[in-house]
C-alpha cells in the first residue's frame, strides 16, 4: 500500500517581497548603488583572474597590461567611491 505524502503548504506572504515593495526612494537608490558596486567588483575580479592566467601562460609584459587595466578601471570607480563616501557622511 502506498502512502500519500502531505501537500506542501503554499506560502501566501513573502516577507522579503513585501519589504522590497515598500522601500523608500532613498533605500531603492542605495540598493541600486550597491548593485553597481557589486557589479564593478565582479568585473575587477574577472580582470585579475585573467591577468593571473595570462601571467602563467605567457612571457608578455605583465606590468604594462596591469597598468593599462588600472588606467581604465580606476577612473570609473572614483566617482562611485566619492558617492559612497558622500552618502556615508550624510547618512
Inertia-based shape: flat
Counted beta strands: 0
Ends distance:
64 Å
Series of secondary-structure elements, N-terminal to C-terminal: HHH
Strand content: under 5%
Helix content bin: over 70%
Helix/strand-derived category reads: mainly alpha
DSSP summary: helix tally: 3
For the sheet with most strands, the description reads: none
Radius of gyration: 23 Å
Q: What's the mean pLDDT score?
A: 76
Low-confidence stretches: none
Write a structural description.
- With 91 residues, this protein is an all-alpha fold.
- The chain has three helices and no strands.
- The protein has helices spanning 15-21, 25-57, 62-90.
- α2 (25-57) runs antiparallel to α3.
- The N and C termini lie far apart (64 Å).
SSE map:
Blueprint: H1 15-21, H2 25-57, H3 62-90
Summarize the structure.
With 91 residues, this protein is mainly α. It is built from three helices and no strands.
Highlighted features:
mainly alpha; 91 residues
Amino acid at each position: 500500500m502506498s502512502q500519500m505524502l502531505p501537500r506542501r503548504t503554499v506560502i501566501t506572504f513573502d516577507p522579503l517581497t513585501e519589504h522590497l515593495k515598500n522601500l523608500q526612494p532613498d533605500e531603492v537608490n542605495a540598493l541600486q548603488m550597491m548593485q553597481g558596486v557589486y557589479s564593478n567588483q565582479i568585473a575587477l575580479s574577472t580582470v585579475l583572474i585573467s591577468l593571473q592566467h595570462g601571467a602563467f601562460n605567457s612571457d608578455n609584459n605583465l606590468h604594462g597590461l596591469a597598468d593599462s587595466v588600472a588606467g581604465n578601471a580606476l577612473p570609473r570607480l572614483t566617482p562611485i567611491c566619492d558617492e559612497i563616501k558622500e552618502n556615508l557622511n550624510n547618512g
